[in-house]
Amino acid sequence: MSKKDRFNALLKDKDQETSKGEVSKNAHLALFGNENTSNNTSETKSVVTSKESVSTDTVDISQLADKLAAANKPKRVKFEDTHTKSTYWIRDDILKAFNKIAGERGEKTRIINQALIDYFQKLEKELQQS
Length: 130
Hints:
By secondary structure, the chain is mainly α. It folds into 2 domains: 3-72, no CATH class; 79-129. It has 8 helices and 2 strands; from the N terminus they run H-E-H-H-E-H-H-H-H-H. The longest helix has 23 residues, at 107-129. The chain is elongated and about 75 Å long. The termini are far apart. Residues 1-52 are annotated as: Disordered.
C-alpha cells in the first residue's frame, strides 16, 4: 500500500469517525505504515467512549503533516555558512590559466581550497624538518 493510499484511507476513516463515533485501526495503521491492514471491520474498529474524546483528539492533518515533514527533513547546511567570499589580487596570466582549467560550477572554489590546503601542508612539513 502506497503512502497516498494510506493517506486516503486515513481520510476515509476520519470521515467515518466523525459520523459514527468510532475510531478505526486502519487510520492508525495508515499513519504508521503497517502493511497488514485488515478489511474486516469487526476486527479493526474500537468504540470511542465519549464525544468529548473525539473532539479533543481531532487533529488538523495538514499541520500534522507539516510537523512530521519538518522533523524528518535533514538539516541542510548552506554553502554561505561554511564558506566566506574574499577578494584577492591574482596575476593576469595565472587567472587566464585558472579560468581555462576550471569548467563546471564550483570547480574554482574546490581548486582554490585544495591549493591552500596543499600549501599549508607543505609549510607544516617544512617546519617539522627544521
